[in-house]
Write a structure and sequence with these properties.
Helix 3 links the parallel strand 1 and strand 2. The two termini are 38 Å apart. Helices cover 39% and strands 14% of the residues. The radius of gyration is 20 Å and the shape is globular. The strands form two sheets. The chain has a five-stranded parallel beta sheet with strand order 7-6-5-8-9. A four-stranded parallel beta sheet has the order 2-1-3-4. It is α/β, with parallel strands linked by helices. The chain is built from 14 helices and nine strands.
Length: 327
């Protein structure tokens, strides 16, 4: 059997001739333009095509090093970034808080400076403290990608959510997007509010009053608060259900889990209030039977598993652009 030429094994990644990409770091979506998001999604289309090939790897980032540093537990996000980096041919090193010198008292800044000295090109980090990636970005020459910081932001989750919506509806311009659940403590909600509004959607936030931001009008004047779930879901195009963080219930923010289920669970009856082609989304992990009924989580309108798959393509696109692919 004749060995195929390298160009046949690894067809080149096509990209637009003019690049609007201006980002060195991905910390949140508040500094993105609509043109940059569209450019990213176009690049993710090329990455999705690569993932559909018999050989799901290209040598585009050969010689580059991607470090994932997670100070909080993660399965989906960490594995998605590592698969994305390996699919592009990058070397990948993973660090967790339990295996780093943080357990010996080393500061975050000292840790990232050590990583920088060892030659990282992109640093993907998750940290329990809001703002930690911003501090790190000031200290290193590497590109920093925020994989979740405290209650603040989770930009790559919002980007893969937008990409998933785009694959079904072509975009979100003029769409009604409803985010249901613990908005107060959700970094996913915050980044999605930025992303959805930048792309032209109307955002409605729904949840118990104790789990909604007190000063939401100042922070997110473009979002609408609607505590009544039936009113919020009327004619919705997109429904994002957030995980109910049970630790918040222990803090007295909810009377009981049963009360939350009765008032805010997305079930088939409530889903019927939305448009027939409305998408049901969830960032995971899913508490089936609490924030979402099992038949809805696995129903025809659910794109939850597709979100996970699209996460690899979107994160491949980000790594590619950050490592110089847009230049």
């Amino acid at each position: 059997m004749r060995i195929r030429e390298q160009s046949q094994l690894y067809p080149p990644i096509t990209k637009p001739t003019a690049s609007p990409w201006q980002h060195r770091h991905i910390l949140d979506l508040d500094d993105f333009s609509r043109q940059e998001m569209e450019f990213l999604f176009h690049t993710a289309d090329a990455m999705k095509e690569i993932l559909g090939r018999e050989i799901k790897r290209v040598p585009t980032l050969r010689g580059k090093t991607v470090v994932t540093m997670f100070y909080e537990p993660s399965t989906r996000t960490r594995l998605s970034f590592e698969m994305a980096a390996k699919s592009l041919g990058a070397d990948v090193t993973s660090i967790t808080a339990a295996t780093s010198s943080a357990v010996k008292g080393e500061s975050l800044v000292d840790t990232v400076r050590t990583i920088q000295a060892l030659g990282s090109d992109v640093l993907v980090m998750r940290h329990p403290c809001s703002g930690a990636p911003y501090l790190v970005a000031q200290q290193v020459a590497s590109s920093v990608v925020n994989a979740g910081d405290g209650w603040h932001a989770h930009p790559t989750q919002a980007l893969l959510d937008l990409y998933t919506i785009r694959s079904h509806h072509g975009g979100v311009e003029g769409a009604k997007a409803v985010i249901i659940g613990d908005i107060l403590h959700s970094r996913v909600a915050r980044s999605n509010i930025w992303g959805l509004t930048i792309m032209g959607a109307q955002v409605v936030l729904c949840g118990p009053p104790t789990l909604l931001p007190r000063f939401w009008g100042q922070a997110y004047p473009q979002a609408i608060i609607e505590p009544d779930i039936e009113a919020a879901l009327a004619d919705a195009d997109i429904i994002m259900v957030l995980r109910l963080q049970r630790e918040r219930q222990q803090g007295g923010l909810l009377p009981s889990i049963e009360e939350y289920v009765r008032l805010y669970q997305l079930d088939e009856r409530r889903l019927a209030l939305a448009k027939p082609d409305a998408l049901v989304m969830h960032p995971g992990p899913v508490n089936e039977g609490i924030e979402i009924a099992p038949e809805v989580a696995h129903g025809a309108q659910s794109v939850i598993e597709e979100q996970v798959a699209n996460g690899v393509a979107v994160r491949m696109a980000l790594l590619y652009l950050l490592a110089g692919g847009a230049h």
